[in-house]
């Protein structure tokens, strides 16, 4: 699942203390924590939200860059990684969720979900 582990930079926050966390591959994903442990937990949550937002907005999910010196790899939670893998496979195949539902004989459930 290294396809869904992204390098994060943990920068000490000189003015407020703690750490600011950024992801070079996902510039919209920025968070912070008062301790390294809290910053890492916040980073995992922030990364999950960024990937989910890209899926919802039908945007690209980039391949993770190699980590720079001092970066930490932050994995996407498994459920989100599976959703992202399915999303990427559908994009690559050029099929919509409705076409996938038809193939899986789930059209009614997808139509109901999309109408909500």
Features of the shown structure:
about 45% helix; about 120 residues; 4 helices; single chain; 4 strands; alpha+beta
Number of strands: 4
Distance between the termini: 32 Å
Structure classification: alpha+beta
Shape field: elongated
Counting DSSP H or I runs of 4 or more residues, the number of helices is 4
Unreliable segments (pLDDT under 50, ≥5 consecutive)? none
Residues in β-strands, percent: 15-25%
Q: Rg from C-alpha positions? A: 17 Å
Summed over residues and divided by their number, the pLDDT gives a mean of 89
What does it look like?
There is one protein chain. The chain has about 120 residues and is an alpha+beta fold. The protein has helices at about 35-55, 80-95, 95-105, 105-115, and strands spanning about 5-10, 20, 30-35, 70-75. Helix 1 packs parallel to helix 2 (about 80-95) and helix 3 (about 95-105) packs antiparallel against helix 4. The longest helix has 21 residues, at about 35-55. The radius of gyration is 17 Å and the shape is elongated. About 15% of the residues are buried.
